[in-house]
Amino acid sequence: MVIDMNDARLDTIEQIREFLVGTADVAFSNPEDQQARHRFIATVLKRYRYFRLAKGQRGVLLAYMQRLTGYTRQHLTKLVAQYRNQRHLQPVSHASRTSFSNRFGAEDVALLAELDSLHDTLSGPATKVLLKRAWQSFGDERYAKLASISVSHLYNLRASDSYRKQRRVWSRTRPSPVKIGIRKAPAPQGFPGYIRIDTVHQGDQDGAKGVYHVNAVDIITQWEVVAAVERISEAYLLPVIALMLDSFPFAVRGFHSDSGSEYVNQDVARLLNKLNVEFTKSRPRHCNDNALAESKNGSVIRKTMGYAHIAQKHASAINQFYCNILNPYLNFHRPCYFAVESIDAKGKIKKTYPQDQIMTPYDRLRSLPDYPLYLRPDLTVESLHQRSITLSDNQAAKQLQQARSRLFQSFNRRSNIAA
Predict the structure, then answer these.
(1) What phi and psi values does residue 204 have, to the nearest 5 degrees?
(2) Where is average pLDDT lowest: 55-59, 85-89, 329-333?
(3) Statement to judge: residues 37 and 162 lie in one domain
(4) 368-413 pLDDT, tens digit each
């Protein structure tokens, strides 16, 4: 709000304090009139005997003058100090700045451009050494002034128009690499079908690589599909990824991985693009982007298969065990924790894990509103329900333990035969 100032009714500091509380921002009718502002400041300082007031009262007057003049607190402090010393305020003169003569002329700029052209524009410190050597070691008097130039001012000369007119550098257009995946955290918005995937290596032994486990987990339902491959090259991994995506009971909409080359490559990108699946990858210094899959690596893969070396030749048997035994157990019989988010008084998101939110991935899927709409066309609600009640939780766990024992015994038998 712009007004013509008339503060004749403000006689005390308390009245000024009430004025500051009860008014919006105001200003002089002519903001460019510096003399009027200075006269107003001098009048206020003299009228209220500013320098005899207590510190708190001086602060109220400063806020009052700052509100009406539009000056900053630092500017007002300088004006008050000027009034205290001189008993009046002088307008600031807008005289031209002091100009300095150029130490380095056009000849020096031309010499620098010629030297940069000969040496392909070295760094500033290296160029300064060349200038000193040209004068001191080889006696070229033309470089006498340039030999004493600072590195920072050398870059100033390179940025000048005269330098650029004498020397232009042309470079070919460099091909930009094709970006694979988007660096961002997946945002499922409550919809199933956004999976996180990670790879677990089963260790080395005597220079021989072990089998690789591929672990894919849905963010919303924690529906998990595990597979095993001999190697993580495209020839082995790509068919397994396609089968894993087809094993989820709902359509996969998002595919999130870390920056490992087994996933971030053109073959996987083409596969996901063909399936119309969004491809995202973890961001630097954001360890939680793929935390769900990494936590399942420890609680599921390592807990089931351990840490000992398993040869790559057993990948087919492990994959069969995963498909027939482990994956049905994980999704229909193994409960998972599901977080409930709440915002505290400080605005921070707090996660809790109440007892009623501990359920199997299948139960979590059923709890979603209109969950039959998310199912694949070849699946029905009745078929999924029948798979969930075929075995009890204890029967499925016992079947898992027995199948795992047979699997590990087959590893030992094959190792003894090979020996």
Answers:
(1) -110, 155
(2) 85-89
(3) no
(4) 998 899 999 989 999 999 999 999 999 999 999 999 999 999 887 7
Residue 268: which residues within 8 A CB-CB, separation 6 or more?
180, 234, 237, 238, 241, 279
The C-alpha atoms of residue 68 and residue 174 are separated, in whole angstroms, by 57
Q: How many CB atoms lie within 10 A of CB 63?
A: 15
Question: Are 192 and 325 within one domain?
Answer: yes
What domain range includes position 247?
Answer: 186-337+392-418
Whether residue 42 is found in the same domain as residue 155? no
Calculate the CA dihedral of residues 43, 45, 47, 49 and round it to 10 degrees: -160
Q: How far apart are CA 410 and CA 412, in angstroms?
A: 5
Q: Could you read off the pLDDT of 250-260 as tens digits, one per residue?
A: 999 999 998 88
In terms of Cβ atoms closer than 10 Å to its own Cβ (0-12, 13-18, 19+), residue 257 is buried
Segment 244-267 shows an average pLDDT of 90
List pLDDT tens digits, range 119-150.
888 999 999 999 999 999 889 999 999 999 99
> Which DSSP string do the residues of 276-330 spell out, in sequence order?
T-EEEEPPTT-TTTTHHHHHHIIIIIIHHH-SS--BGGGHHHHHHHIIIIIHHHH
Residue 337's nearest CA partner among 295, 305, 379 is: 295
3-state helix, strand, coil in the chain (%, to 5): 50, 15, 35
